[in-house]
Amino acid sequence: MKDTYVEIIKASIKLGFTSFGGPAAHIGYFREEYVEKRKWLDDKMYADIVALCQFLPGPASSQVGISIGLLRGGILGGLLSWIGFTLPSVIILMLFAAYVTTAGSFDSGWIQGLKIVAVAVVGQALLGMQKSLAPDKVRISIAVVCAILTLLIPTAIGQISIIVAAGLFGYIYYKQETVVPAPNMALTFGKKTGIISWILFFGLLILLPVVKPYFQSVYYSIFDTYYRVGSIVFGGGHVVLPMLEREAEVTPDIFLAGYGAAQAVPGPLFTIAGYLGQVTAGIPGAIIAVIAMFLPSFLLVIGTLPFWSFIRSQKGIQAALKGVNAAVVGILLAALYDPVFTSAVTSTFDFIIVLISFMLLVVYKWAPFKVVLISALLGAAVQLI
To answer: CB–CB of 182/309 below 8 Å?
Structure first.
């Protein structure tokens, strides 16, 4: 078994250093490494794992990696798979956060460039998500209504309520559609462990805010905030943007600089938690934020895998998910305007950089980290004019 763990950590670290391009690209890298090269599972099982992770809230690509680790080496295998894939980008973003807090100024042109590129990146993500999650008139309408409501009710409770309402609409509208059952998965743990995991997930989600008044600690506050965000964000890394921007106790300048920098590093976008935690409370804050952000993913994956073949065959759940996914598109649309556009674009030159970055991403299909570097250079150049 020791050789299996070594194999898992080697494969996941390789992916952690080389997986640029966001969740969709990560899924491709994972397939190449785990299905084609190492043959740990076949395409059918891999597709089913991807479907599961799209169904759950949280970072889909990280959850795919965790799931494959769980199948290969049990719970410790899942933990090692997550560490390898996540650690490289966490360290890079913590170092960037240390620089930002030391510099103490956002007058630097290249940092402004990092803020501006977030507009193009979120715009590109919105286009891609609309095609897959809101491809028809009904779901586009759901997305637009949810965007309007998100702008009118800019609170975490408002966002959760919008997602729930969209899920109820999806359940009513799509519940007659056919669902294909999923195959069973060979696991080293069973339904009892899954149930315990679900109890822990909901227990923490409910109790952390209740107990918070009795713990006047910045570290407790960080854990509560990032656990909650990691628990209820559907649609992947970009959709974490509006909720984190409201929940994290940092200025819009600091937030968007980190968000732009997160596009330039490999691995999951949720590792922005390391940057924000570092800015808020140093290295301990970063560690706590990252653990809290990804802990719901672990609990949800462990809790769901033993039951997935049954859950996926339920028409009502898949119908509700269609509404939830459309709502996710709307929430991201609202975030594209506020805080991303309103905080980053303050001049004609800023908007010109947005247009150039968007063209490079969408038309010329440049890798995001290259576009981030170009935007930072253009931001620095504009400051010299």
So the answer is: yes
Question: Scanning the structure block, which residue is given the tokens 């993500």?
Answer: 125
Classify residue 203 by burial, with Cβ atoms within 10 Å: 0-12, 13-18, 19+: exposed
The half-sphere exposure of 16 on its side-chain side, counting CA atoms within 13 A, is: 23
Are 260 and 118 in contact by the 8 Å Cβ rule? The answer is yes
Question: How many other CB atoms sit within 10 Å of the CB of residue 364?
Answer: 9
Does residue 143 contact residue 381 with C-beta atoms inside 8 Å? Answer: no
The residue among 77, 87, 108 whose CA lies nearest residue 1 is 77
Nearest CA among 261, 274, 249 for reference residue 94: 274
Chain centroid offset of residue 360 CA: 23
Which residues, including other chains, have CB under 8 Å from residue 15's CB and lie 6 or more apart?
26, 29, 30, 33, 65, 84, 85
Q: Which two tokens stand for residue 22?
A: 């966001």
Q: Is 261 helix (H, G, I), strand (E, B) or coil?
A: helix
* 305-334 as b/e: b if 16+ CB within 10 A: bbebeeebeeeebbbbbbbbbbbbbbbbbb
* Beta carbons within 10 angstroms of residue 299's beta carbon: 25
Nearest to 311 by CA among 200, 193, 181, 119: 181
Tallying the residues shown for the chain, one arrives at 385
pLDDT tens track, the chain, 385 positions: 678 899 999 999 988 987 766 666 677 778 888 888 898 988 778 877 877 787 788 887 899 899 999 999 999 999 999 999 999 999 999 998 988 877 665 556 777 787 787 788 778 878 877 887 889 999 999 999 999 998 998 776 787 788 889 989 999 998 887 666 656 677 888 899 999 999 999 999 999 999 888 888 999 999 999 999 888 876 556 667 677 777 777 877 788 888 878 877 888 888 999 999 999 989 999 999 999 999 999 999 999 998 877 776 677 877 887 888 888 788 878 878 877 788 778 889 999 999 999 999 889 988 777 887 898 899 888 877 7
Cα 12 to Cα 73: distance, rounded to the nearest angstrom: 13
Q: Which run of H or E residues covers position 246? A: helix 240-247
Cβ atoms of 327 and 166 closer than 8 Å: yes
